[in-house]
Amino acid sequence: MPLPKAPTKPATVLTSISAEPAREPPPAERPHHAVVPIAPMVRAPHAPLPAPTRPSPSARLAVVESKPQPTKATKRLRSTGAPTLFVLDTNVLLHDPTSLFRFEEHDVFLPMMTLEELDSHKKGMSEVARSARQVSRTLDSLVAATKTPIEEGIPLSALGNKDASGRLIFQTQAVAGTLPDSLPAGKADNQILGVVRALKNLQTTRDVVLVSKDINMRVKARVLGLQAEDYTNDKVLEDTDLLYTGVMQLPASFWDKNGKGMESWQHGGFTYYRINGPIVAGLLVNQFVYLENGTTFYAQVREIRGKSAELRVLRDYTHAKNAVWGVTARNREQSFALNLLMDPECDFVTLIGQAGTGKTLLALAAGLSQTLETKRFSEIIVTRATVPVGDDIGFLPGTEEEKMAPWMGALEDNLEVLNKTDDNAGEWGRAATNDLIRTRIRIKSLNFMRGRTFISKYLIIDEAQNLTPKQMKTLVTRAGPGTKVICLGNIAQIDTPYLTEGSSGLTYVVDRFKGWLHSGHVTLQRGERSRLADYAAEIL
Question: How large is the average pLDDT for residues 372-396?
Answer without folding.
Answer: 77
